[in-house]
Amino acid sequence: MRHFGRVVAICSVLWLGCVSSQEFSIPKVKFEYLKPRGFRASIPDVPGIKLFAFHSRINKPFKQFEEGDFAEDVLEPNADGNWVYETTKANVPEGQSIHYWVYVQHEDRPYYATNLKELIRKNPVTTTTTTTTQKPKAVTKTPKEGKTNGKSTSTTTTTTTTTLPPCEPTVTTVNGGRSTCAGKLIFEDTFQSLDLTRWQREVRIPLDTESAEFVSYQATPDNSYVAGGHLFIVPTLLNLDPDFSDERIRTGELILAGCVSPTNNENECRRKAALATILPPVVSAKLNTKGTFRFQYGRVEIRAKLPKGDWIFPQILLQPAENYYGYADLASGMLLVAHILSNEELVTGDGVRIDGHRLRGGPILTNRAKLRMASLRANVLEEHFSDGFHVYGLVWKPDSIALTVDGFQYATIRGKFKDYGTSNNLTQANLWNEANVMSPFDREFYISLGVGVGGVTDFPDGSRTGSLKQPKPWNNTSPKAEYNFYQSRNVWYRTWTEPELKVDYVRVYAL
């Protein structure tokens, strides 16, 4: 992985000529070791610093600018005036070494320090680095010993090479068309905490714009939280809330404080139960980066453990940032990075297996029942995809979409979506850009992570689940679909042994 930062075009060609008028040096990197495991690396805030990127490995040197096993782009200093990277995932036994490199954007210029090595000791150690944008040179410092507050400290011997690699051009754009550099990691979250400055929790009741799943998405900490370095998204029954008895679900009202409807439709923010219309019987969560990160073309990698349980499905999606081609009937498209029907065993009425052993991904162009899944591609495993973590990938190029799992590319979908839409009488295809074969996937999209339950599109009518082949308890076209689903909760809820989506990391790279 190459981490380049933002460099003006002339510097990407003649980088030896890009020397700042005032020399800047990366501040000292301070290491602190956490209990029972992990470490903290930090630099003090200096006026002009806009980003601190830290990439590290344990006992494994870097060749150049590969991605670290423990790495993050730190976008702002903390309240104590330090730019801090922290991980509790790393095992750091005394006597081992942390190999690392750092990148600092100071004003509008990138500064690198490479070939760095930290010897792990019981007491915190400070490593000194010296970096400028002038011609690459090596600086070797002799270890010194001294006392600070009566305690011995030491400075490790490091070789610091200052480099300014070229910013190679890329078709990838970020956040409104901003340019970036080829191969650059443009987004990463390893979920050391739930950063609500990067992720927005959706609060709404989904309608038929996507799946009309039988949930309300809420911002409750029980439904989305971080623990042990993983993001958890967990569906729960509404009747577990003491304020919502079964009777109130059938006759009461749900008003969602803080609700935001993409279409200003009040039905996404409140529902009054009456007759066959009930309150959404499941509470879930859905997080997105719509307000903070969106991109066009790139490589997505998400390491996750998918949920298991009847009538559940994970939502690992790319969604259109502006719905440029329209909102109704998914006119602006949607990309599935990873999708399963999480039942342990599920077959169609014709006996075709469609449960959690079958991974699907790719573009969705309409909500029409027969066409919604037609453009998706599948990969089948003997094991259920929820049995362990997998790395789900999507490579979005100007002429194709490739799908991967654990590095294996199982499908490539070429463009010409307008031709497909026209031949299938999709009215939105008339709006798609004829000059771009990827339209409607020729605009910026954002990341969505969530868990859906039920709904009127994902699970085909006539499906049968479990070893007893019990029929799906609702029909997608029935006005009583949600009510019939809820009435059979004593059957399907017993299968929810692992209903949560667990996400280890999300990474997006420029092409």
UniProtKB/TrEMBL annotation:
Amino acid composition bias (Low complexity), ranges on this chain: 127-141, 153-168
Key words, A-Z: Glycoprotein, Immunity, Innate immunity, Signal
Region (Disordered) location: 127-168
Alphabetized Gene3D superfamilies for the sequence: 2.60.120.200, Beta-1,3-glucan-recognition protein, N-terminal domain
Any GO molecular function: hydrolase activity, hydrolyzing O-glycosyl compounds
Highest taxon listed in the record's lineage: Eukaryota
CBM39 domain boundaries: 24-125
Annotated protein name in UniProt: Uncharacterized protein
Lineage, broadest ranks: Eukaryota, Metazoa, Ecdysozoa, Arthropoda, Hexapoda
